[in-house]
Amino acid sequence: MGKVLGEMIMSHGYSTIKSATPIFQAFPLLEKNIPHICLGAIPTPIQKAETLAKLLNIKNLYIKRDDQSGTKLPDGTQLPGGNKVRKLEFLLADALNFDATSVLTVGDAGSNHALATTIYAKQVGLKSIIMLSPQIPTAYTRRNLLLNLYFGADIRYFSSETERDVAITKLARECHKTNQPNPYFIPMGGSNEVGSIGFVNAAFELKEQILAGQITMPDIIYVTLGSAGMAAGLIVGLKAAGLPCKVIPVRISMTGAHAVYKEWLLLQMLNKTAAYLHSSDKNFPKLNFTEKDIELENNFAGPGYAQITTETAQAIELLHTTEGIKLDGTYTGKTFAALVAHAKNQDLHDKTVLFLNSFSAGDYAQFTDKLDYKKLPKELHYYFEVPLQQLDKGF
Q1: Is 84:112 a contact under the CB 8 Å cutoff?
Q2: Among residues 210, 328, 316, 307, which one has the least CA distance to residue 258?
Q3: Which of 14, 144, 281, 320 is most deeply buried (CB count within 10 A of its CB)?
Q4: In order of start, what are the domains of the chain with their CATH numbers?
Q5: DSSP 3-state assignment of 222?
Q6: CA 181 → CA 94, 114, 118, distances in Å?
Q7: pTM higher than 0.85 for the full model?
Q8: 275-332: per-residue pLDDT in tens?
């Protein structure tokens, strides 16, 4: 490990001890070769949704509560969680291992990943630069922008992804000219072979929970397909752990390049993640994935990214009223809508189903109540001054 890794972790109260990390228990050489920080409240619990299972005629329905993954502070406050915490446990450790002092990431205006990067980079002493681009306004967009402001991100907004890419190149050139270190770059969604390990680890965590009797072996796992790192890591991990679960990644956008790109992206992520782990520990199985190993659900994305469909809004309401769990309309709501539709078609009546809830709900008013959105870059005021979609429940 780099010198900064140990110093930063110890000075912020985090431990370099990784023996409780399931993937390292299964493959000890990975612990020597892959940096890791324990950040969140992981393992996350599994909730059995008995009421909803009866309503939908599903044999067994469980919910993996990654919405509760946020770090718990000494005063009892829980930071925002969601699926990105698992990725950042490996990404931020990698950044510190390279003696980085700052991280740079990208996303849309309401990016959950950009927010998580801001929060957890600060927790380990790293500055964060988040470069954002336009999206359809949502309630969680407003929340996330205010939380980014509260946690001290260097927020930069661009009118297009192309303009943002140009800015990244310019920043790299400026760092070179002034002999300053480049920020450690984290890709959109934290999805690369490093970040995906967080969900390889989640698969081994699930195996432990199955062995402990917390859940019956799932036949099917529903997971959101955004930047593909979560789905890829989970599929690789299940294969390596010997768990015969079928993963259904649900697309949340079919617009533009997404319609032809996502299957290719997922396949690339699967093989890069598997190859990286095998190269780090030869005992990790040498896996090769093809199109036959993935089955995407394409029918619930709606007309565009962050556009909430009627079936999504109904699925969100159903889970909230029966199990008290809140989802968002961009990602997890669409994934759960797919599960509900499959159940209504009687596809799940004899199945044990696991839904991975990757959205951290809540307004976090304790952080945002006294913040003025006008302190954000002027271009972002738009998200607070236009009406939300009619179907946006504000979760």
Answers
A1: yes
A2: 307
A3: 144
A4: 24-74+193-357 (3.40.50.1100), 82-191+364-385 (3.40.50.1100)
A5: strand
A6: 15, 21, 19
A7: yes
A8: 999 999 999 999 999 999 999 999 999 999 999 999 999 999 999 999 999 999 999 9
